[in-house]
Amino acid sequence: MNWKRAFWLLAVVNAAILILAVVWLFQPSPPVKRPVRPHVEGASFTVYSKKAHLNAVINDYLAEKTKDHPLQYNVWLADRVFVSSEIPMFGRNVELVVSFMPKVVKGGNVELIEPAISLGDWKLPVTYVLRYLQKHAPLPDEVVIDPERARVYVALDDIRFGNGYQVAAKKIDLAADEIVFTLTIPTRQR
User: Fold this and answer.
1) Contact at 8 Å (CB) between 10 and 148?
2) Which of 108, 121, 85 is CA-nearest to residue 167?
3) In angstroms, rounded to a whole number, what is the distance separating the alpha carbons of residues 115 and 180?
4) Where are the transmembrane segments (predicted)?
5) pLDDT at 36 > cutoff 90
6) HSE on the CB side for 142, CA within 13 Å?
7) By the 8 A CB rule, do 51 and 78 touch?
8) Which of 34, 114, 132, 179 is deepest in the core (most CB within 10 A)?
9) What is the pLDDT of residues 179-190, one digit of tens each?
């Protein structure tokens, strides 16, 4: 084979490779499939907490809700949920302590059951004290006292914190100091 023929053969092969490369580079690509953005009301986070942390949040919330009412009370979590207040009797204040066992119910709400009540050193009938608290305690609208069923219902799904934050209980195990709830933060994107 002479050099002229080899040159033209090499030139044709190079031109064919160049044409194939150009065609391949400018070939239209398939469109990118974008996933559909889901409709979300808010971002949810699972939060694990301890009794001490929750005590601070609960009492801060209650202090704000009851700041101008003469009957003040505190709530704390120990082996049970305790609510205490001082009631004026016979010219002095006597401590009223009510304790409950918490139970997570439908919708992430909490039901406080199995009440035990004492006024000073006396044990009192549950129904009587719950009726008194129902009438006189400055409770948030989300807390409902049911004296006939001896329980207090806390509608967490109705409570809206700053910026619309919402909580729902998932698990409350006071003995193990394990409290789990879902925190939902509303988003602006729909």
Assistant:
1) no
2) 108
3) 23
4) 6-26
5) no
6) 16
7) yes
8) 179
9) 999 988 887 755
User: What is the rounded CA–CA span in Å between residue 71 and residue 88?
Assistant: 10
Contacts 24+ apart (CB under 8 A), 91-100: 94/119, 94/120, 95/119, 95/120, 96/129, 98/129, 98/133, 100/151, 100/152
Q: Which amino acid is at 89?
A: M
Token match 């009726």: residue?
131
Residue with tokens 């195990």: 173
User: Are the C-beta atoms of 164 and 183 separated by less than 8 Å?
Assistant: no
Provide the pairing of β-strand 178-186 with 73-77. Answer: unpaired
Scored b (16 or more CB within 10 A) or e, 154-164 reads: bbbbebeeeee
Q: Show me where the domains of the chain are located.
A: 51-158
pTM of the predicted structure, to 2 decimals: 0.66
Q: How many helices (H) and strands (E) does the chain have?
A: 3, 10
Asked if 86 contacts 96 with a C-beta cutoff of 8 angstroms, the reply is yes
Question: d(Cα 164, Cα 28) in Å, to the nearest integer?
Answer: 48
Task: Identify whether the C-beta of residue 103 lies closer than 8 Å to the C-beta of residue 151.
Answer: no
pLDDT tens, residue by residue, 119-140: 888 888 888 888 887 887 777 7
For 72, the 3-state DSSP assignment is coil
